[in-house]
Amino acid sequence: MRNLFQSSLRSTVYLNLVCICIAGLISCQENSQSVSSSSTIGNIKSTTQTPVLIEVIDTAGKELHPDSLITIGKKKEPSVSEVYQWKNHLVLYGAIDDLEGVQQRIRTVYPKAEIKVYQNPFYNFNRKHCSDTTTAKEWDNIILTANLVNDTSLQCEYLDYHATQFEKWPEVSKGFCNASFQQLLVYKNGRQLMLVISIPKGASLDELNPKTTENNPRVDEWNQRMKKYQEGIEGTTKGETWVFLKQLRINN
C-alpha cells in the first residue's frame, strides 16, 4: 500500500501552475479557483466550497492536547469538521466558511504553536474521471502528509510532471476509479504536502488500494518515478515518507 503514497498528484482542471526558474531559484505560483463541492465530508454533505486543512504544530516536538481543537471543530461550520493527529501535529479538516475566525480561535488556545493552512488543492480527482460516475452517499477520509525534497529544481520538475498527469498518465486516475476512491485531494504549503483520500464509508483502504495497480503497470512506473521527489516530514524515521494521521473522535 505504501507504494501508492509515494506518488503525489497534479491537476490541470482546477489549477493553473506557473513555475518560473531564474538563476537557479524557482517560484511556483499557484493560481487556483475556489471549487464548488457537492461531496460528502464524513457523514454530512457539503455544498459550499472545497475543504480546508488547518495544521497546528508544536515546534518543540511535544504532543499537543487535541481537546481544544476538537472543541473548535464542533463550532458552527457548514459541515462536520474532522480532527487528526500525528505526534506533535494536529489537523482540522472540513469546509470552513470563517477561516480567519477559526485560525484566531486556534491561536488563542495554542499561542506558541505554528499554524499552517492548506486550501485550494492542486490536485482534485473525483468520480467524473471514471466511466462509472456514481458516488457513495457517505465517505471516510484518510489523511497523509509528506515533504517535497529540499531542492527547488526538483520541486519544479515534480510540479511540472503533475501538470499533465491526467492527460499523459491517465492510468493513475483509472486506478483510483478501479479502487472506488471517491475523491483524492492534494494540498501544498511550502514543501509540505497533505493528501486526502476519500473512500466509501466503512470500506477498508488496505483492501481497496491494491486495485489501483491491478493489471495496471503504469501506476507502478509512476510510483517509482515519484519517489525521488518526496521525503518524510520532521519526526519520521529513515526511509519513511508518507505518514498517516489518526482521526480523533468528535462527538457532535
TrEMBL record:
Name the record gives this protein: L-rhamnose mutarotase
PANTHER family noted in UniProt: UPF0734 PROTEIN DDB_G0273871/DDB_G0273177, UPF0734 PROTEIN DDB_G0273871_DDB_G0273177
Presence of the UniProt keyword Isomerase in the record: yes
Keywords: Isomerase
PROSITE patterns reported for this sequence: PROKAR_LIPOPROTEIN
Entry superkingdom: Bacteria
Pfam families in the cross-refs: rhaM (PF05336)
InterPro entries: Carb_Metab_Mutarotase, Dimeric_a/b-barrel, Rham/fucose_mutarotase
MF terms (GO), sorted A to Z: L-rhamnose mutarotase activity
Enzyme Commission number: 5.1.3.32
